[in-house]
């Protein structure tokens, strides 16, 4: 080089140096604080310094270093200073901080390159190559990939010099190998980040193909290289959706594992190997190399299970990956179960982890395997005292869903029962919401089987819901399950089994009694069905719709007693108020019930006393309904029903008179009810009451009283006495009935042809009245009755006779009352000629006996008057078919003669004469009467003589 050119070159280097030093003087004060606001300017200056230093290195002459050596030494010192400063600066997460450090290191590297000797030594080359690698890494981290590639490319000359450097004593072999390998790895990383996989792969081969160099690398370098290979392989694995193939990643991961596997014993390397194998297993899996993937994972799993951090998320990923590989290889259920157990045994029981297990199980078709996994998960969950009930709840729900898909029903039910029992044995209580959710699923699957007419399966599902696991927080649901199961058994016609199941329910629910009713109906148990209806109505949750269903079922089963009980209960549920529609419905029910009872009464084997009481009770209710309809002005709405009711009650009572035994009171009450309902009809009728209805009113009134009279008579005949209060009540009732019949006769039946017929009722009631007045010894009332009868016309004669019979037999009857009655009889009979001669003779004897017993002149005169009337009767009927009885004639003769004799002795000659004259007349009508008449005549003549 000419002197002139040398001088020019030296001048240029001097100028560049001056500019570098000037900029360094500005930058250095800012390097102490990386947060200085002018740091961005300093970064630009550092980049400019690096560019100037690079220009200095390119322009310096290759010979005669003395001309610029002092400049080079100065730049080298500045480079060392900047590099040291970069080492002291912390690499924060901020992107600007990385750029600052990268710029600082780049400037330091270029200054060091500018200060290098023309032929640097081996150590210098190793050092500068290492710095170039570090600078490239820093630039890559700062995101300046192109500049990093430029730095690393320019450093290739140092790598080449190292390759050609002589090392006679081999003291620098390891350093050269390490620096070269790190340099290649840095270039590899730079090419990868630029997307140039070809160059990256080339650099990787340069590292791995030189076994001699690899043997010289220290552990930390191998660790670094393995990490970089792993990083690239893992990145390629993530980019498989962008056109990369899993096989590409496998190649890088194999390099990483090969590099890491060359060193054993360090904890860090072991961790790195595990990480590499984890990624490699996933890569094999994605590349469908399942055998290789399984081999890798089989090697890993024992290691990670033995580690202290065996439950980490990364290790769990490996276990999941192993499971996925086994499933792809279609491994046996036993092997898959082992994989699942490994996952479950090392996982925390959290919501996400349980979700992962359950979602994965849904992808399997192996029913037994899924069940076994569920059970193992249950076992592990129950062993952990910190497990929340929600986790158990989720597992139970999942198992319920799973077992619902089992083709083997018995196995499914056993699985459920085992799990439920294990939860109970662990003293774990499900919250009410969780229990409700489980029961909802159970009922849903039971309902599906029920709709499919799989009654047995449906019953088993419902019975599963009755497990004690669910009864703690939801006891009512247990009864619901039993009822549903019982209904399934009913559908299968297993009525005995249904009955057994339903009896496990509490007895305070109407629904339970309804199911009991169904089982009893199907078994033909009428009494039990009736009892179930009664209990159902009493239950607090009773719904009237149940009775409507029971009505239909009872009707279809043709069990009339049960239908009767249902209808009666249905009637009781009606609230008779101001609602006319309720009255109409109740009337319809009453008619149905009455018809049903009457049809049951026809059966020879029927329980007549009970049915009679039932029909009477129903007519009582009918009377109440009729009264309610009358109060509500609703009679027109139910007029036909009311008419039907009174007629039916009347006819039923009439029929009962001949067919019902020992039911006098019920018959009487039916007549009363018929009368009362008929009266309501009459009051509501817009027209006047006709004679026929009045006859029925009178007949019903009379029949009711008569029935009660007969009942009292039967009691008195059986016991010899009767309750005084009952006698008084009946006495009052007779008076009331007599008044009602009298009112009908005077108003409606006055001119009717049936008036005389009704009069017989009236007179019979007088006899009843007399009878019970005598029983009560109410003689004043009895005297009034006799006086009342005196003006009652020819029909009263029979009444008098009956009354006389009553009084004659009653020893407690006062004589005056008896006399009054007998006198009225004789007066009526003489007036109307209604008595027979025989009866007349009997009552003549009776009244004469009473009169003569009083032994008073007035009474004797009455007696002789009656005897004279008897003489007229004797004469009138002497030649008739019914003459005066001979014994009575004899009695009259003896009484007249003896009384005359007594009067004669008492010097009552007028009376004696009259008695003797009567006896003389009687003698004509008795055998041997002529001789007797002569003696009487002689005695009468003596009386006449003495009188005069």
Automatic annotation (TrEMBL):
Pfam families in the record: SPO22
Signal peptide: none
Family annotation (InterPro entries): Spo22/ZIP4, Spo22/ZIP4/TEX11
Keywords: Meiosis
Keyword DNA-binding: no
GO BP: meiotic cell cycle; regulation of synaptonemal complex assembly
Alphabetical list of PANTHER family matching this protein: SPORULATION-SPECIFIC PROTEIN 22 (PTHR40375:SF2)
Descriptive protein name: SPO22-domain-containing protein
UniProt source species: Cyclocybe aegerita (Black poplar mushroom)
């Amino acid at each position: 080089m000419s002197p002139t050119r040398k001088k020019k070159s030296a001048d240029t280097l001097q100028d560049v140096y001056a500019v570098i030093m000037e900029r360094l003087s500005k930058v250095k004060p800012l390097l102490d604080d990386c947060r200085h606001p002018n740091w961005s300017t300093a970064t630009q200056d550092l980049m400019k310094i690096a560019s100037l230093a690079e220009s200095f290195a390119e322009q310096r002459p290759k010979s005669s270093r003395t001309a610029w050596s002092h400049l080079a030494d100065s730049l080298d010192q500045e480079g060392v200073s900047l590099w040291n400063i970069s080492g002291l600066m912390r690499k924060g997460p901020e992107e600007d901080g990385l750029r600052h450090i990268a710029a600082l290191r780049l400037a330091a590297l270029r200054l060091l390159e500018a200060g290098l000797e023309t032929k640097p030594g081996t150590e210098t080359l190793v050092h500068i190559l290492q710095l170039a690698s570090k600078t490239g890494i820093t630039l890559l981290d700062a995101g300046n990939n192109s500049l990093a590639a430029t730095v690393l490319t320019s450093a290739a000359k140092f790598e080449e010099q190292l390759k050609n450097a002589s090392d006679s004593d081999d003291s620098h072999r390891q350093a050269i190998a390490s620096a070269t390998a790190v340099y290649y790895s840095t270039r590899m990383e730079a090419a990868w980040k630029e997307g140039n996989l070809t160059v990256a792969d080339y650099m990787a081969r340069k590292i791995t193909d030189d076994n001699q160099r690899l043997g010289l690398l220290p552990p930390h370098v191998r660790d670094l290289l393995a990490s970089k290979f792993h990083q690239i392989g893992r990145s390629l694995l993530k980019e498989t959706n962008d056109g990369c193939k899993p096989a590409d990643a496998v190649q890088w991961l194999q390099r990483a594992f090969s590099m890491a596997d060359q060193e054993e014993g360090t904890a860090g390397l072991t961790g790195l190997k595990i990480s590499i194998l984890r990624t490699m297993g996933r890569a094999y899996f994605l590349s469908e190399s399942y055998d290789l993937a399984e081999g890798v994972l089989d090697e890993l799993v024992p290691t990670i299970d033995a580690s202290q951090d065996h439950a980490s998320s990364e290790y769990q990923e490996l276990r999941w990956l192993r499971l996925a590989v086994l499933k792809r290889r279609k491994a046996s259920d036993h092997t898959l179960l082992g994989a699942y157990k490994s996952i479950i045994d090392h996982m925390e029981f959290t919501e996400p982890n349980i979700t992962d297990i359950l979602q994965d199980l849904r992808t399997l078709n192996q029913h037994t395997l899924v069940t076994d996994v569920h059970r193992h998960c249950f076992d592990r969950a129950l062993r952990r005292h910190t497990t929340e009930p929600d986790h158990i709840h989720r597992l139970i729900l999942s198992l319920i869903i799973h077992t619902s898909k089992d083709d083997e029903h018995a196995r499914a039910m056993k699985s459920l029962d085992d799990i439920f029992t294990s939860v109970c044995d662990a003293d774990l209580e499900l919250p009410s919401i969780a229990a409700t959710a489980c029961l909802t699923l159970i009922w849903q699957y039971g309902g599906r089987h029920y709709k499919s007419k799989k009654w047995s399966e449906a019953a088993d599902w419902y019975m599963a819901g009755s497990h004690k696991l669910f009864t703690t927080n939801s006891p009512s649901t247990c009864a619901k399950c039993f009822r549903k199961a019982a209904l399934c058994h009913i559908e299968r016609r297993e009525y005995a089994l249904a009955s057994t199941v339903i009896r496990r329910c509490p007895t305070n629910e109407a629904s339970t009694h309804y199911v009991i009713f169904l089982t009893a109906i199907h078994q033909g148990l009428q009494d039990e069905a009736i009892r179930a209806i009664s209990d159902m109505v009493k239950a607090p949750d009773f719904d009237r719709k149940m009775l409507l269903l029971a009505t239909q079922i009872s009707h279809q089963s043709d069990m009339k007693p049960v239908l009767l009980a249902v209808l009666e209960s249905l009637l009781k549920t009606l609230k008779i108020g101001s609602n006319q529609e309720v009255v109409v419905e109740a009337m319809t029910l009453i008619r149905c019930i009455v018809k049903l009872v009457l049809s049951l009464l026809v059966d020879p084997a029927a329980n007549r006393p009970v049915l009679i009481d039932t029909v009477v009770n129903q007519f009582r209710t009918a009377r109440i309904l009729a009264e309610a309809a009358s109060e509500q002005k609703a009679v027109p709405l139910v007029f036909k029903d009311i008419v039907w009711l009174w007629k039916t009650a009347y006819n039923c009572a009439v029929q009962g008179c001949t067919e019902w035994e020992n039911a006098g009171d019920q018959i009487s009450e039916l007549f009363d009810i018929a009368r009362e309902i008929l009266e309501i009809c009459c009051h509501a009728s817009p027209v006047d009451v006709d004679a026929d209805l009045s006859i029925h009113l009178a007949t019903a009134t009379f029949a009711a009283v008569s029935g009660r009279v007969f009942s009292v008579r039967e009691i008195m005949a059986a016991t010899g006495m009767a309750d005084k209060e009952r006698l008084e009540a009946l006495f009052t009732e007779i008076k009331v009935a007599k008044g009602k019949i009298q009112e009908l006769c005077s108003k409606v039946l006055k001119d009717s042809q049936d008036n005389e017929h009704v009069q017989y009722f009236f007179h019979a009631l007088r006899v009843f009245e007399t009878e019970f007045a005598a029983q009560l010894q109410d003689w004043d009332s009895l005297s009034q009755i006799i006086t009342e009868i005196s003006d009652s016309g020819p029909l009263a004669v029979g009444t008098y006779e009956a009354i006389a019979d009553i009084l004659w037999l009653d020893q407690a009857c006062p004589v005056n009352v008896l006399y009054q009655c007998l006198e009225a009889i004789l007066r009526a009979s003489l007036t109307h000629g209604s008595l027979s001669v025989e009866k007349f003779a009997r009552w003549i004897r009776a009244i004469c006996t009473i009169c003569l017993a009083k032994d008073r002149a007035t009474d004797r005169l009455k007696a002789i008057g009656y005897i004279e009337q008897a003489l007229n009767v004797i004469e009138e009927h002497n030649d008739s078919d019914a003459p005066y009885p001979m014994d009575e004639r004899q009695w009259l003769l003896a009484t007249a003669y003896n009384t005359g004799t007594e009067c004669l002795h008492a010097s009552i000659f007028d009376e004696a004469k009259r008695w003797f004259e009567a006896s003389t007349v009687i003698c004509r009508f008795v055998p041997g009467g002529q001789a007797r008449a002569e003696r009487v005549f002689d005695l009468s003549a003596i009386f006449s003589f003495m009188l005069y």
